[in-house]
Amino acid sequence: MAALRSLIHDRGLVQVIATHSPLSAILAEEAGFDALWASGFELSAYLGLADVSLVTMTQHLEMTRAVAARSALPVVADIDTGFGNAVNVVHAIREYERAGAACVVIEDKVFPKVTSLVDGGRQDLLRIEEFQGKIEAACASRQSEAFLIVARVEALIAGLGQEEALKRAAAYVEAGADMILIHSKQKTPEEIEAFIAAWNGAVPLVLVPTAYPEMTVERVRASGKVGMVIWGNHTVRAAVTAIQGVYRRILADGGIHEVNKDIVSVAEIFRLQDMDRVKDIERRFLK
Fold first, then answer.
1. Which residues are identified as catalytic?
2. Taking phi first (over 0 means left), then psi (-120 to 50 degrees means alpha), and beta for anything else, what does residue 254 get?
């Protein structure tokens, strides 16, 4: 758990990739990412549901626990609004810490929320004081100071402007947040870069550049104020792209004889499933 705080301190910037399953977590670790984003959006998509607080805490917690069990990387849990009010947050923090997460991100929207990047979505925010109470509850409930509490500011998403975003971010740091995630749905990085330039808070920032993909790692590092960048939904989008393509080809080709050459082998799936370990256990213990 302490690894995430240490990584941010040692490296200055950590790259976090979205996951929605233990398999994607294994692939992310092999690829070389620093940490995993246990994504509510990706899990919703995986379950075929809209990202509007339909996924329960139990469902997301079980996914987070399974991911943490199959990867050595720190897990950043996306717990949306904390599944309710401050009472729910207290319960959630205890459960996610026990499940092996290294960090939670809580956003300042009302419950139930609507996913941030959808056109025309309802983006209602809590009062600042109420969300401060949630952050205070989260900090008071964690067992270890190594467990990071990140406050996600949605003021730019809601169209309330930089002044409101900065005011909220400062208030959440005052309440005890370890980092501030500032979110934007603008198609270019200028809005986020303006926030970064104006940010004089004592804690580092977190970015999720999904809507503004020109925000490269080099550009993030140059700001000097960002400790974490999350690639927020590319795992499930890549999976959908690949699956749609394979399905079309199988039907068009009248079989799997062509597509079979372009996908991983069954042996590679066995490797990812750690089948050699299973065979070793059988040799040692089945009598």
1. 51
2. left
Contact call for residues 50 and 44 (beta carbons, < 8 A): yes
Measured at the CA of 183, the angle between CA 55 and CA 8, to 5 degrees, comes to 95
Q: Which residues of 217-252 are buried (b: 16+ CB within 10 A; e: fewer)?
A: eeebeebebbbbbbbbbebbeebeeeeeeeeebeee
Structure tokens at 63: 């996914």
12: which 2 tokens?
């200055």
Q: Delineate the domains of the chain, giving CATH numbers in brackets.
A: 2-233 (3.20.20.60), 240-285 (no CATH)
Q: Report the C-alpha gap between 207 and 98 in whole angstroms.
A: 26
Which residues lie below 8 Å from residue 106, measured CB to CB, with a gap of 6+?
79, 80, 81, 82, 89, 134, 135, 138, 149, 150, 151, 152
pLDDT digits (tens, 9 = 90+) for 85-138: 999 999 999 999 999 999 999 999 999 999 998 888 788 999 999 999 999 999
Write the pLDDT tens digit of every residue in 140-157: 999 999 999 999 999 999
Q: What is the mean pLDDT of residues 218-240?
A: 96
Residue 58 has pLDDT above 70, yes or no: yes
CA distance 1 to 103: 8
pLDDT for residue 2: 54
Q: What is the pLDDT of residue 182?
A: 98
DSSP state of 107: E
Name the nearest CA neighbour of 68 among 103, 114, 31. Answer: 103
Peptide bond before 112: cis, by omega within 30 degrees of 0? yes
Whether pLDDT at 45 is above 60 = yes
Closest to 58 measured CA to CA, from 37, 79, 72, 87: 79
Q: Decide: 169 and 196 in contact? Cβ < 8 Å.
A: no
